[in-house]
């Protein structure tokens, strides 16, 4: 039995209860813009979840928790490629994380994917008993649906409180003058966020820096605001919504046939602005983006090449970079190759490649061949930790 609809017309809590009461086994997929989350059920209980959002990939989540450094993540990824294995055992066998920390991170990440759905105001869903997800590839847990609903509703209420103060992620905060930091116990994450706010970064920029999700970072910042440690310095304008172009799907298909991939993506995004339930448009965008990435790897950005700055770091401030492009620039330290930068970034693959391409076209970055450090093998060389470039 299948069920399809939109969260505008069927509440997530109601949907989860429908699965639980019917003791159903299958997968419930949710799609909004380019994001796809899914929940897997067995006899009405939640046994797993997943997302195509980079933030919810295991390595990114461990980075957010502070259990893994970027240099160790890079090394683990290299070993994963060399051995053609999976990331989890590599992380444990190499001693980058403990088995206990890994298991807890997998469970927490799985729960966060589900809780994130409670914050969606809209999104298409589809339940099917014919699951497309391989049980061997899932992080299996066992969560009672009622407990998930309770926590999800609590977060939804908390999110409303947060958005009343931070209307969007385009908000800049600052330490409140005279705030008594000694009287409030701060977590390691809150200390890092406090430092980032003193650097004048927006919430969007801080989300990238700490590899976190919207809710997790906003929640921690709100706790600091509620404790009179932070104050709102500036509220930026909301990004403009996509225009309504009418029916352009056929034009997008024609662009795909002509291999005009950027034009095709732009048209399909306009289709989705007017018809959010057009799953064929989502599929076409995904295919086009994959094809563009492959073209860039073949023609301009070989994955084993190392980006190298041609100008002083201070010069980057003179270039018009978005905060997301600035984040990519901050990963360039002359030792990390393109493959590593893409893997370690919480941004989509194509966005990272386009940022690197822009820096090259601006003549501030060049690509060099990756070479082992003197007296070391390439596989054992440890790069310095990036992130020192101000932007």
Summarize the structure.
The chain is α+β, with helices and mostly antiparallel strands. It contains 15 helices and nine strands. α1 packs antiparallel against α6.
Properties at a glance:
9 strands, disordered C terminus, single chain, two-stranded antiparallel sheet, 391 residues, 47% helix, alpha+beta
Give a structural overview.
- The protein is α+β, with helices and mostly antiparallel strands and 391 residues long.
- The chain folds into four domains: 3-155, no CATH class; 166-235; 249-299; 305-380, Arc Repressor Mutant, subunit A (Orthogonal Bundle), CATH 1.10.10.
- The protein is built from 15 helices and nine strands.
- The protein has helices at residues 12-21, 58-65, 70-83, 87-93, 99-117, 145-165, 188-198, 203-210, 214-226, 249-257, 261-274, 279-299, 323-330, 338-344, 349-361; strands spanning 3-6, 26-32, 35-42, 45-51, 124-128, 171-175, 230-235, 305-309, 365-369.
- A five-stranded antiparallel sheet has the order 1-5-2-3-4, covered by helices on one side.
- Helix 5 (99-117) packs across helix 6.
- The radius of gyration is 22 Å and the shape is globular.
- Residues 373-391 have low confidence and may be disordered.
Q: What is the topology?
A:
Layout lengths: L2 E4 L5 H10 L4 E7 L2 E8 L2 E7 L6 H8 L4 H14 L3 H7 L5 H19 L6 E5 L16 H21 L5 E5 L12 H11 L4 H8 L3 H13 L3 E6 L13 H9 L3 H14 L4 H21 L5 E5 L13 H8 L7 H7 L4 H13 L3 E5 L22
């Amino acid at each position: 039995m299948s069920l399809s609809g939109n969260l505008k017309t069927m509440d997530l809590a109601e949907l989860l209860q429908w699965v639980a009461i019917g003791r159903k086994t299958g997968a419930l997929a949710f799609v909004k813009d380019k994001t796809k989350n899914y929940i897997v059920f067995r006899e009405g209980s939640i046994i797993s979840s997943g997302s195509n959002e980079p933030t919810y990939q295991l390595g990114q989540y461990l980075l957010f928790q502070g259990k893994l450094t970027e240099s160790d993540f890079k090394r683990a990824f290299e070993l994963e490629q060399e051995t053609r294995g999976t990331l989890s055992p590599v992380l444990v066998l190499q001693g980058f994380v403990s088995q206990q920390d890994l298991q807890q991170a997998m469970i927490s990440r799985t729960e966060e994917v589900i809780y994130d759905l409670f914050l969606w105001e809209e999104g298409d869903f589809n339940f099917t008993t014919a699951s497309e997800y391989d049980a061997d590839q899932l992080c299996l847990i066992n969560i009672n649906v009622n407990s998930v609903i309770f926590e999800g509703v609590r977060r939804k209420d908390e999110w409303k409180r947060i958005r009343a103060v931070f209307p969007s992620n385009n908000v800049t905060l600052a330490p409140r003058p005279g705030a008594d930091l000694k009287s409030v116990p701060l977590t390691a994450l809150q200390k890092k966020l406090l430092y980032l706010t003193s650097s004048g970064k927006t919430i969007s920029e801080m989300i990238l820096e700490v590899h976190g999700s919207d809710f997790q970072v906003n929640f921690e910042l709100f706790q600091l605001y509620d404790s009179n440690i932070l104050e709102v310095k500036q509220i930026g304008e909301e990004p403009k919504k996509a225009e309504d172009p009418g029916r352009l799907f056929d034009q997008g298909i024609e662009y795909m046939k002509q291999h005009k991939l950027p034009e095709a993506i732009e048209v399909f995004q306009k289709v989705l602005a007017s018809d959010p339930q057009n799953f064929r448009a989502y599929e076409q965008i995904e295919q086009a983006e994959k094809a563009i990435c492959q073209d860039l790897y073949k023609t301009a950005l070989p994955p084993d090449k190392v980006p190298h700055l041609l100008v002083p770091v201070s010069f980057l401030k003179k270039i018009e970079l978005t905060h997301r492009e600035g984040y990519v620039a901050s990963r360039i330290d002359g030792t990390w190759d393109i493959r590593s930068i893409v893997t370690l970034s919480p941004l989509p693959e194509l966005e990272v490649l386009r940022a690197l391409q822009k820096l090259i076209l601006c003549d501030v970055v060049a690509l060099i061949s990756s070479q082992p450090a003197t007296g070391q093998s390439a596989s054992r060389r440890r790069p310095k930790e990036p992130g020192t470039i101000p932007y």
